[in-house]
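ping. complex inputs:
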Amino acid sequence: MTETRQLTLPIDEPTIRSLNAGDFVELTGEIVLTAGLPTHQRILQYMKDGKPLPIDITGGTLFHLGSYSQDTASGFEVLYINPTTSTRFNAVMPPIVRHYRLRMVGGKGGLDRACVDTLKEVGCVYLSFLGGGSPLLSDAIKEVKAVAWEDFVSHYRLVKLRVEKLGPLVVGIDAKGNSTFETLTEQAKQRMPDILHDLETERANSPSSR
Amino acid sequence: MAITYDQVKSVSAELYESCLKKIPEDTKEALRKATEAESNEGARKILNMMLRSAHAAESGNRHICSDAGVPVYFMKIGTAARLDGNIKQAVSDGFDHLVATIQPPILKHVTNPLTNERGYKGKDMPIVSYDLIDGADYVEIVCQPKALGSGRWAALEIFSFPTLETIEKYVMDCVLKAGSQHCPPVVIGVGIGGTFDLCAKIAKQATVRPFGRKNPEPILADMEERLLKAVNKTGFGPMGTGGDTTALAVHIEYTSGHGFTPVAVCFNCWINRRAGARIYNDGRIERFE
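pong. complex structure:
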């Protein structure tokens, strides 16, 4: 079940729709990332103004990954990447995913139901990256393709990388409307009465209460 | 001899760097044990990735996480310690030194909450709390850089004369709210009692307690054990994508107060940043995790 599926970018819609929540994947190809809410707001502004983004993400990816980029004599270099919490982007993701027909988004912690519905509609998956996986994730970087919006702090910039075997990553939300995060929260809520009951029993039987 | 500005400055920087690149030994051991105990295959895979990431960071002098957090230090000053120079400034200068010299460089996370502008410096940064230790001939510094992933989910509520049941239910509510998002398996720090400010402080300090040490109060030692079991029954698992390992430890501290009883809950993500040192009058520096 936890075999890791190798995926190459760009990726077509049928392949995306064949993925299931809980699958493990590794990515090879070009990805775009940012960890900034102001970056998303600027993307929304560009959409509104009908301006092309400095890095095109149409049919591609937009991952919630922070990165340290620095300008060197031979161009930009990216020293490391790592995921950030995605839920703070909940409100801005549906219009962006829809407008650019994104195939993959991701970060850590998942996205809300409105986003899950949008991913299903568009044919896009959410990938969960290992928080604290910076050394492993950064080793997958093979080339820095572009860095845009340098006026932002490093992790807010829009960065395009070529990666090889980035992962393993978990499909947290598939394009069929299934969210691992939602399922687990629901499951935890359902388990809670039993958990609280067990706590009560253990409290009554604990050595300190005798 | 005395404890100098230079020592405090360099120790402050070193502890921070250590937190960014090295996971405490007890935490690695707990992750290894979790890998063996975990019944979910995907969760085992993620726990193994965590151990590989920890090893790669430590052996390759790299950051485990890109969120270097904001500088948080707990400083305890022995009343028999002899201090030479501006010790308070030394911690601040130590962080500045770290920012200027650390490789690879760290990202700007210090945030002005009024404008959301980010930099390396800000009002009242680093965040340092002070305490005294009667008779000790040393200064103890514990560093715990705090990042957004787990920092975001800390919570506090004030009850009046709560039962243990109410307290435990509140902890579970906080666990449910954080769900998959705080980079589990986490260390959970709980504070009970005191006042609003003190309760939050002891909860935070509970997260830096090494593994395997129970609260000496039997009621809390039992509560720590049963809450850990309870949290791990929720099923959120490593990185919140399912499994038996949602928390590595629950540490609880309490203090007396009035009948209005605050309960504070906070989280340390799986990389469990904490590093400490004691600097003695005679120049010795002892490190601990």
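Residues 180-205 of chain A form the longest helix (26 residues).
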